[in-house]
Structures are given as structure tokens and as C-alpha cells.
Amino acid sequence: MSTRWYPIYQRGNPQLRIFLPNFWMKLVHTPLRQQPNIVHFQCSMEMTKHDIKNYLEKIYKVPVVEVRTKISLGKFRKDIGKGYVVKDDDIKTAFVTLPKTTTFEFPNIFEKKKGDVEDDLKSLEETKKTFKQYIERNRDRSDIPSWFSI
Amino acid sequence: MNFSLFKTLARRTFTICLHTKNSTAASVTSKTKSFHTTAERKDLMEFFDIKKNWNETNIKVGRAWRLDELRIKSNTDLHKLWYILLKERNMLYTMEHECNENVRLFPNPERIDKVQESMNNIETVVRERNIAYYKLETGETGERPTDDVVNAFGLREKYQQKEYYLPKFMNTRWVRPYLEHGYINSVAVKKFLRLYNEKKYNEERKARNRNYNHVQQLLKRFPNMDMDVLKAEYPGVDIEKAKRTRKARGHYFPKY
């Protein structure tokens, strides 16, 4: 909605408000080591620094000290099959500074849990067993597809 | 579209909510205890899924909000729901990005589509209400008006109007090239239009001939086929004429 057409702002008019913003933002890893109060976001291309600040403060209730933005050019590459040139989308990155006292650590989402390795081994065993069964069953009818059974 | 309706209604419902809350606060407390709400997390961790779903391969969720369900909601409810969906979408985008970075499969990517569909439906409902309000109050839809214009190539085009700081007649930079000399009368545009029309005409002609020949071949191979179906399939072809041609005659005695 915020990317819709808004009336032109004339000085003295009431401030333009967004009721249903359709801006998106995603939190991404900081590529290099940063201060603990610096967070990197990727956001929609239409967002300004003010928008980003307001977005975080009003919707997520996160205090923001400073916002800097960068637009990185999408890569130009050749399509593998066809050979024509394809351009990837540009990316707007926001470097957001939180107050000194707050810290943010990017969580490790793909941490292995305790039982995970055992579960994997168990499922592997199971697949091996079912494959053996399938081979056993299709010993004398090798030309019949696997889904065909009585 | 203007959101004045939305604003006033939202304000009104909000005030009504406040009034009711104040008057019946004492009596309601016992009933509201059974009411379950999710705990509010006001944090950057809102950008991530709940911890239970990390490292999960299959996350089951419900369906998207339907239009009919949203139509019976109040404006305030829609407004709140919009922000919930917005946060959910941001969360999903973040998780998807993280999965891609770590070369993992993003579990149940259709969640993004479901959220997007719900958001589109909310937008539709708000738009409907706005149009209804505007029709009642002003007799117009309140949508962004469109114009039929001729563009720089001399082709007809829909133009979505927008506001300008300068009125048309004062904008000399626009008026002079566009109206006085005109793209539309220039030699280049005339040449373009001539070639463009020729191309279009040739395409139509070729399609006509192709269909005519194809019908003849069909009549030759299948002389007893259903003529009504053939007529419906190739409405531009004169089938009676096609029957009488040499191409349509097979290697057998003609019936007529």
C-alpha cells in the first residue's frame, strides 16, 4: 500500500500517513565482524532512511540511533541454457545502529540438536532396509516399475 | 485511494472500544481469563521463527485468510491483522534468506504465498469499503482516474493520472514538444505506424490463410466430422467454401 500513489505533498498540508505499509525487511548476517549494536537488513527498494527508522521503531518497537543505506548492483550473468544476459535484482541494504546499551547476536538456526545424528542414522538404516526389501521382491520381475505391486 | 474513511472508522471503533472497556471492566475480568493470546515479543528476534521451528524440515500451517472471512471484520481488526501478516512475511523472508545462505531447504515455502494471498485479500476488502464509501458520499469511486492517450509511438494507451505541481497549460516544457510539434505527426512516428500496421495486417492475413488451408486438410482427412465443432474452432473460415475446393477433396468419389 505504501508503494501506491499518494497525493502530492504541499507545504502546510497534514503529514502523509501510511496505514497499510507493504514494505518488507529481512534481517541478514553481517558479512564482517561488527560492533554488537549494528544490525544489517535488506529492505524494499522504495524505503528511505526515515522509512526504515520509523518501520523498526513503530512496528517492531526497536529503538534506532542511525540508519545508513546502500544499493548494491545485481549481478549480470549469462543464462545457462539460452545464453542471453540476465540481471539479478538490485539489493538495498540498511546498516542500522542500535543504542550503545543494546546488543544483538545473530542466532544459530541450524545448530544440531542432541538426537539429530541418531535420527539421521535411524532413517538411513530404514531406507536401506526398504531398498533391500524392494530388491528382494522384484528379483524375478526386474522389468516392472517400483510402484506396481499387488 | 484515500484512507479518510478508514481513518475515521478506525478512530470511531477505537473510541467505542475504549468506552466499553471502561464501563464493563469489572464484570468482564472473570470471562477474559480463559481467552488465550500469544505472548508479545518486542524484539529483533521477531524477525526469526520461534525456536521450536528452527532446524525443522516440515512446518505445518493453516490456510490463507479468505475474502468472505475478512469482509465481516472491522477496520481495526483488518489493520491489526495486516501488521501481523507483515511481520510474518518479514520473518519468512528472513528465514528463507538464512536457509539459502546455509544451502538448506527452506521448509514449506508456500507459507509466503499464503501470507501474501491474505494480504492481497485485506487490500481488496479495504478497497471495496473505500469505493462504497466514496460512491455514497461523492458518487465517484475514488480510484485513481485513467485517461485514454496517444503515446510517443502514436499508439493508444491507458494513462493513470497523477498530480502535478504545474497545470498542463503552464508547463511549457511539456506543451511545446507534445502539442505544437507533436510526436504524433512526426515523420518517424508516421513511418513507424505504417510499418507496424503492415506487420499487423500481414500477421492477420497469414493466420487467416493458415486456418483456411488447415480446415481444407481436415475436411479431406475427416469428411464426416462434426461441422458445428469445426465452425466453433475456426470461426473465421467459410466452411461451405472450403468443402468445394480441390484441396478438400479426398481420393474418393465426392458425395455431392
Provide a descriptive summary of the structure in words:
The complex is a heterodimer of chains A (150) and B (256). With 150 residues, chain A is of the alpha+beta class. Helices cover 22% and strands 20% of the residues of chain A. Chain A is built from two helices and six strands. Chain A has helices at 49-59, 116-137, and strands spanning 25-28, 38-43, 66-72, 76-78, 85-87, 91-97. Chain A has a four-stranded antiparallel sheet, covered by helices on one side. In chain A, a hairpin with a 6-residue loop joins strand 4 (76-78) and strand 5 (85-87). The longest helix of chain A has 22 residues, at 116-137. The radius of gyration of chain A is 26 Å and the shape is elongated. Chain B has 256 residues and is mainly alpha-helical. Chain B is built from nine helices and two strands. In chain B, strand 1 and strand 2 form a beta hairpin. The longest helix of chain B is centred in the last third of the chain and has 35 residues, at 187-221. Chain B is extended. The termini of chain B are far apart. In chain B, 12% of the residues are buried. The chains are: A alpha+beta (150), B mainly alpha (256). At the A-B interface, strand 1 of A face helix 4 and helix 5 of B. Chain B: Its main location: mitochondrion. Chain B: GO terms for molecular function: structural constituent of ribosome. Chain B: It comes from Pieris brassicae. Chain B: This is Large ribosomal subunit protein uL29m. Chain B: Keywords: Mitochondrion, Ribonucleoprotein, Ribosomal protein.
